[in-house]
Design brief:
This protein has 291 residues and is mainly beta. The chain contains 1 helix and 19 strands. The protein has a 14-stranded antiparallel barrel. The chain has a two-stranded antiparallel ribbon with strand order 4-5. The longest helix is centred in the first third of the chain and has 4 residues. The protein is elongated, with a radius of gyration of 23 Å.
């Protein structure tokens, strides 16, 4: 809802996605689930759990799965479809740790196992995320930084890449030999984020938080985002933000509710809407428990 300006805002179980250092703000246990109704019938599902251990730090695990509906296979000869279908998906499973090293500085790290699948071809690899969170000491100003998807190249392999190769194209009497088509290795989408956040008290129960960040992806141009969150009684939240230097994304809105459902257990529900220009919009819905 704040246009993803989360590098310095991360302070819950979702910090494993935005900035793993934010996990250090957890003082109990949290579990959450998110569904993102993405573009072109693509779905993103995310589940995460984190728990604080006294004098050690906060540990967390998460899984993200991106999936799409089956698509009909077309070829040059059968451009209207072959009658066969393929699917594509990707996933990331991570384990995270964060610790408050001083009263003002926290550090976090995530180790991830990643995979992608397109029809019968797959690609797997490992990556790491690193993050820091600094409370500057100037009122509530805090600075956050993270590096995501730091790891080696990935490459697709699979049964569809196995072929029979005839170097003479059918001439002569030699039999074709077994061979494999090679694919081009590709870099992971590494992303560097740096941001700041600042709280302003509007009364005994009202608080507004301003957040901004700049991010530099290795496969795109530098981008930015600003956002604000209004909270009342630490229970009701309204959010808005805007992304800069993107081709389609722009304005975002969101809302949240945090309410006690039993002694020591809190239910947290969040919703966000993101404008995608010509692609219309994407919506996110999250539900979680703090205990």
């Amino acid at each position: 809802g704040m246009a993803e300006a989360g590098a310095a805002m991360a302070n819950d179980v979702y910090a494993m996605y935005w900035n793993p250092a934010g996990l250090a703000a957890i003082d109990g246990s949290e579990i959450s689930f998110t569904n993102v109704n993405w573009l072109l019938d693509i779905d993103l599902n995310y589940v995460a759990f984190a728990r604080y251990f006294e004098d050690v730090g906060t540990f967390g695990v998460s899984a993200a799965i991106l999936s799409m509906d089956d698509q009909e296979i077309t070829t040059f000869e059968q451009q209207s479809g072959t009658g066969d279908y393929y699917s594509a998906s990707s996933y990331a499973i991570s384990a995270s740790f964060a610790r408050q090293l001083t009263d003002k500085f926290a550090f976090g790290i995530s180790a991830k196992y990643l995979g992608e699948k397109i029809h019968n071809e797959t690609s797997q690899g490992f990556a790491f995320d690193f993050g820091t969170m600094l409370h500057t000491g100037f009122r509530s100003l805090r600075l956050g930084m993270s590096i995501s998807n730091l790891g080696p190249e990935m490459e697709f392999t699979g049964s569809d890449l196995a072929v029979r190769y005839d170097s003479r194209n059918g001439e002569g009497t030699n039999d074709p030999v077994s061979a494999n088509l090679s694919t081009t290795p590709y870099d992971m989408p590494m992303l560097f984020r740096v941001g700041m956040a600042y709280d302003v008290d509007l009364g005994p129960k009202s608080l507004i938080t301003f957040s901004g960040e700049i991010k530099h992806p290795n496969d795109n141009i530098q981008q930015g985002a600003v956002g604000a969150q209004f909270g009342y009684s630490e229970q009701f939240f309204l959010r808005s933000g805007y992304k800069f230097n993107t081709e389609e994304e722009g304005l975002a809105f969101g809302a949240g509710l945090a309410t006690n459902i039993s002694n020591g257990t809190k239910l947290v529900i969040d919703y966000a809407w993101q404008d995608f220009g010509r692609f219309e919009s994407a919506q996110r819905f999250s539900i979680g428990f703090v205990f």
